[in-house]
Amino acid sequence: MSDIADASLAYEGTKRIEWADRSMPVLRQIRERFAVDRPLDGLKIAACMHVTTETANLIRTLQAGGASVALAASNPLSTQDDTAAALAHEYGAEVFARSGIDREGYYRHIHQALETGPDLVLDDGCDLVNTLHTDRSDLIGTVKGGCEETTTGVIRLHQMALEGALRFPMVAVNDTDTKHMFDNRYGTGQSTLDGIIRATNTLLAGKTVVIAGFGYCGRGLAERARGLGARVVVTEIDPVKALDAALQGFGVEPMAEAAAHGDVFITVTGNRDVVTAEHFAVMKDGAILANSGHFDVEIDVRGLGDLAVEVHRDSRPLADEYVLSDGRRLVLLAEGRLVNLTAAEGHPAAVMDMSFADQALTCAWLAKEHQNLEPALHDVPKEIDTEVAGLKLASMAIGIDTLTPDQEEYLHSWRIGS
């Protein structure tokens, strides 16, 4: 039995899901193929993901392949209640998601999804897999494998694998080129700035935007912030990424220096305590704090609360002003949670088309190949990545060259010289 906020929202949710589907031609083609081939026939899937219209179209695709799906939300503030209602009442999924639910309810929903006894799991941050290994290890025996969608989740899974704790094969969907090169860079880049602008109505042109982390998400943010006229400063712990940022013309500084002159701070590191009390102490009046890393640990929200003498909740929707003892105001967006999914609508459907196509095809591959995989973290097969890219190009009416037989021979022979 699903646990959603309001079943009467199903009609609105269905309209929005169908709208998103129009921008997801690759996933739609895979859904049509799955309906014929039924690669997931009879399998149960438990997913912990953002409950958005794009995710709904992934769930529809898995169902077309023959799976039954139970979905819990991976972030209470990103849950779209109309989407949850539509999935439960129009598309026949079990959905455990309510916008704004507390931490206890969040984990209760994960447990409810797991109680369906899944054969495959889909995770977005590793909380579902972590819960399986800690609180519900009795269910692990039926799990054939799973997929992880985020950088944060992959980091956690790598550690589990290193410690020998991972008990079934997981696939790092996040690490495919058609996911991190496009979803992370173009999706996060656009949707994060969209969320900041919606929440604050600030003009980014002329502002100093400080971006913590220069992975694919940070690169996308930096490119787009510069395109809107901002001065961009990058903070990094990796010398190679810092050098890359510098050679692309971005400023590179430690956070302790950038904190004093930044106007907007955006964290995308996958780590905790990136912006802390020492940084709050020197920030400008009116500085904006936003997080686009998966969990709400990158900005020290508790430390900010300890420094504040008062907090003006929702000065604007999802923008809280923390007033410090010297009168300075720091503006925290979306309670330090994912600003792009909380203050905006997350990635555009067109970019999630590729990420969720990767997910769907990887699920089908796992269903077939799980017996040949060790309990470890695996890469998505290259042919899946290539297929998704090819389908996306075709949907955009873009053609590319192919190798001639002579070129193929040249690339595969060491005997042919100049």
TrEMBL record:
Q: Extract the CDD domains matched here.
A: SAHH
- GO molecular function terms listed in the Swiss-Prot or TrEMBL record: adenosylhomocysteinase activity
- EC primary class: hydrolase
Which first-to-last residue range defines the signal peptide? none
* Intracellular or extracellular location(s): Cytoplasm
Q: Which GO terms describe its biological process?
A: L-homocysteine biosynthetic process; one-carbon metabolic process; S-adenosylmethionine cycle
Q: What is this protein called?
A: Adenosylhomocysteinase
Which species is this UniProt entry from? Answer: Actinomadura barringtoniae
